[in-house]
Write a structure and sequence with these properties.
The complex is a heterodimer of chains A (137) and B (191). Chain A is mostly helical. Helix content of chain A is 68%, strand content 0%. Chain A contains 6 helices and no strands. In chain A, helix 1 (4-19) packs across helix 5 (100-109) and helix 5 runs antiparallel to helix 6 (113-131). Chain A is globular. The mean pLDDT of chain A is 96. With 191 residues, chain B is mainly alpha-helical. Chain B has a domain at 1-87. Classes of the chains: A mainly alpha (137), B mainly alpha (191). At the A-B interface, helix 1, helix 2, helix 3, helix 4 and helix 5 of A face helix 2, helix 3, helix 4, helix 5 and helix 7 of B.
Chain lengths: 137, 191
């Protein structure tokens, strides 16, 4: 039952992204055509609040629910992996109109066709695992 | 109560959705977890035994049960939203986007959340739909693992933590998205 809180957070996240129309293929098209502020407003306000939150966590040395200092993980360095990997993801994002979170939301919101997209993503992840040591990182 | 539900049933503006996303990220940090959804694809590979073919998939997937529960909630949230919270499933996209999408062959852009001709269940077993769903999904899975993160890990958590490499990844997301939208999509839609 210690996992129940994550289920509830997931429900909140799923409702937020669907009500905010972030799961809409059309909204993603609008974003990549620079024809509306909507998606930039969503991501921008999340990031600005996120920056303030994380700065506060670090400066106030905030503790988590167990009393440990909250650790925020850092990302892997490397121009090749971030730029090439990011570009490949971007190509897929503009096709499905969904990044990983919305792929799962759309399974609930739109229906089973998104099982195929999730299957594709699992296959893509598996393929990366096979090719990892041959790729430039 | 009915008034409250009717209020929630409207589309939510960006200044409601964006802060709620930041709140979800903070809640996960408070419970000792990092916001990262694409990791679940890796966890599924691990659970299905991929460790036998690549060390990349050798880890204790039980450490990720919380994240699997999170996406289970995400799916449920999508279902709840569609069933009870979104009676009108049209999307008020800009007239410029409607015109552009009509020009490349999408009928009725914005009349529902996604273009029916590509994503509706009755059209799935066509070459075009399979390319968009399986092919697009494949690129999402491959690219997010290569870059070690998606929109949640890089664009939201990474940028919030002022990570230089996340900024590089997000620039990559846009390079890919712009190439697909402006140079490749018009041909894929004609499949």
């Amino acid at each position: 039952m210690k996992y129940l809180r994550f289920l509830i957070m997931g429900v909140l996240f799923g409702i937020t992204l669907s009500k905010g129309e972030i799961i809409s293929w059309y909204r993603i098209q609008e974003m990549f055509r620079f024809q509306s502020f909507h998606m930039y407003g969503v991501i921008g306000s999340a990031v600005i609040l996120g920056i303030l939150t994380i700065q506060f966590i670090k400066r106030a040395r905030l503790k988590d629910y167990q009393g440990n200092y909250i650790q925020v993980s850092t990302q892997e360095p490397g121009y090749a992996r971030n730029l090439i990997g990011g570009t490949i993801f971007g190509l897929g994002w503009a096709m499905t109109g969904a990044c990983p979170g919305p792929l799962f939301i759309l399974l609930g919101f739109w229906g089973w066709p998104f099982l195929l997209a999730i299957l594709g993503a699992v296959l893509g992840t598996f393929t990366y695992g096979l090719l990892q040591r041959y790729l430039w990182h | 109560m009915e008034k409250a539900i009717a209020f929630i049933q409207q589309p939510w503006p960006w200044w409601v959705s964006g802060p709620l996303i930041a709140y979800v990220m903070f809640s996960l940090l408070y419970y000792g977890k990092g916001f990262g959804i694409s990791t679940n694809f890796k966890t599924v590979c691990c659970m299905l035994g991929s460790c036998k073919v690549s060390d990349f998939f050798c880890f204790n997937w039980r450490d990720q049960i919380w994240n699997l529960m999170f996406i289970l909630g995400v799916i449920l949230g999508g279902y709840i939203s569609a069933q009870w919270l979104t009676p009108d499933q049209s999307v008020a996209i800009s007239p410029a986007t409607i015109a552009d999408l009509k020009a490349i062959g999408i009928t009725n852009p914005g009349s529902s959340f996604l273009p029916e001709e590509i994503f509706a269940a009755e059209n799935v077993w066509t070459l075009r739909s399979l390319v968009f769903l399986l092919g697009g999904g494949f690129l999402v899975g491959f690219g997010t693992r290569y870059a070690n993160g998606c929109t949640s890990g890089h664009a939201i958590s990474g940028l919030s933590n002022l990570q230089y490499w996340s900024l590089i990844a997000v620039i990559g997301f846009f390079i890919g998205g712009l190439i697909m939208t402006h140079f490749i999509l018009p041909y894929l839609i004609k499949l």
